[in-house]
Design a protein that fits this description.
The chain is an all-alpha fold and 109 residues long. The chain is 65% helix and 0% strand.
């Protein structure tokens, strides 16, 4: 069986996060790279599901409301999470791109 071609990717991590990765790798007896690949695979699947949800036209009116910064902040506060402006901006970007591809005018948050 032929090996899958892989590309070298470099990025920076905080020392705290890298220590966590190393701890998981040591506990499981696998390499740091394997831990990172597993995490990326799980994370990308979650991001793809999020993008698909954001593109769902049945959810558009609700998402227009939820993605308003004032509403998103209150929701985050309600569920005990810190509001992540970048995360909500990314979700709004996906939703607006879906509207553009369908010829709809995106709403500003």
């Amino acid at each position: 069986m032929a090996k899958e071609a892989k590309e070298l990717v470099g990025f920076r991590l905080s020392s705290d996060l890298l220590n966590r990765v190393d701890s998981v790798a040591e506990d499981q007896g696998i390499s740091r790279t394997e831990v990172l690949v597993r995490c990326i695979r799980l994370g990308i699947e979650d991001e793809e599901r999020t993008n698909a949800t954001m593109r769902n036209p049945l959810l558009a009116p609700m998402l227009d409301f939820i993605l308003q910064p004032s509403v998103a902040r209150k929701i985050a506060e309600f569920v005990g999470e810190k509001y992540n402006e970048g995360r909500f901006a990314s979700m709004l970007h996906v939703k607006n791109n879906a509207k553009k591809s369908k010829g709809m005018k995106p709403k500003e948050a």
